[in-house]
Amino acid sequence: MWIILLLTHAALALDPLSFLSDDAKRSAVAKAQQAEINRRTGLSTTDCNELFSDLPFENNTKTPFLTAFGTIQDMMGGIRYWDQQCLRQLAQNLSTLNSPIALRVAEELLKTDLEMSVNSTAQYCSPPTSGIEQILALSRNVNRIKSCTPLEQGKWKTVRGNSKSGIDFSYGLVQEAPSKFKAVLNVEFTGTNNGVTPQMMLERARTCMNSIKSGLKGPNGEQLSISLLTPREANQLPVNLRPRKTSISIENENARSHSKAYASSIGCPTILHEVLHLLGLCDEYPGESDNYPCRAVGNRDSVMRNQFLTFGAALSENLTCECTSEECLSVLSDPAKRAILLMPTYYDVIPPHFRNRYCKFDPTIYRKRFSDYSLPDQAYSATLESDHTLKVMSIYNPGAEYFDEAPLVCNCPETDQECKSSLREFAQPSSTLKPNSCPDPMTLKASVIGQNPVADGFSNGQLRIHRPASRPSLLEPRHFNRIMAGSCEAKTTSYERCAEFAYETSKVVCKQAPAQCLNNTTWGQ
Q1: Nearest alpha carbon to residue 184 among 227, 231, 214
Q2: Fewer C-beta neighbours within 10 Å, C or N terminus of the chain?
Q3: pTM of the model
């Protein structure tokens, strides 16, 4: 009897389809088996015998369900939703077969809840002995090896897992050429708000990802691009290579965007920030206001801390500004006045999040007549009155006869060293700094990110400004390395040690954070 069973198992270790030499016949049998499994997928039954009954084979014959594990692997998307008890039985049976394909199929069937149910009841100090325990252990080892194997050119790897910060991720990674990589997500936008439809939001997000790809670089110059597939497009991929679908709702224009919901007014900097969450990255801005006191704060221009400041620093941009009023045209006609338009103001030097938190405007706007004052050499002048107080005078909104001057005072708490450091930077901005947006009284006609520079200049009532990038990448080394590491825990340890505290609400737990997580510039590198 035991000999018969061993022979049966040995036979089952080989897929009978492999013995069909006729390609057309083999394809026809595979399609017939897939059609039958598809039919059973639509059944609402818990009868395992019905689900696992014999499948069609050649010449109107049948073959045992378990011998068709090649077909089963192809149809995994539907099978995984069968009755849980039946899946356990199928995984248990497959795990005893001496076949790499059978092991891969069993691995796909072993969902987290099944693994937890086995682990919660199995207490042992010796190696696992049951079939289901063995395949679980093997599955984990295989996953570790697969996740940590370097990508090869032209090869695809699907990354699935959970960051210690609590963020779950599922994406594809492919090396398109040496030092050129692509991350692939499966996203579905839902709902319509303020006239923005799912298709419109998809196009906006794709345009954003395409415009910034020159700025997504690794620490050694590696190039990363991000591709957004629809569920329909993702379904064209083999099941085992298909990223899990993420649904993103479209909310009203004033909503706070997050990775699963976008405000209808969302712009490219925030889209990138939220997409990077889907690739496993956590927030890096101070978390106290959201009751996350333990968060490891990133450097000031980190895309996961301040995406707007990062965009201004890491992406070159060509701005085309135009006049829509006679007064604006009169400014352009005077070379001395229009020179003011190319001068950076407080708006370009001090980022909005800093101004809103630490700075106050004098309620009085000083309007000055050009004829009464000599033309300024710069539109931004700052005085560091103490290590925690910066006073700024900024000129803006030049007109035919007048220009405005606005005083701004920024105060830092005595103990806030990062704020004080920022004040020192704002006191002496770079001499090459240019406006981040069209200066008053002009309006934006076009903005092109990441393209070849245009020459600054005026013509036909328009102003052209090229704003060069001042940093090499939108991504910190820790971001790029984390994305490329995927679910390889051995390569993400440093990042995860700090990310683990990103959404912790207990101040007591903060004491457990490593000292390296308190460094605002290099943690997780």
Answers
A1: 227
A2: N
A3: 0.63
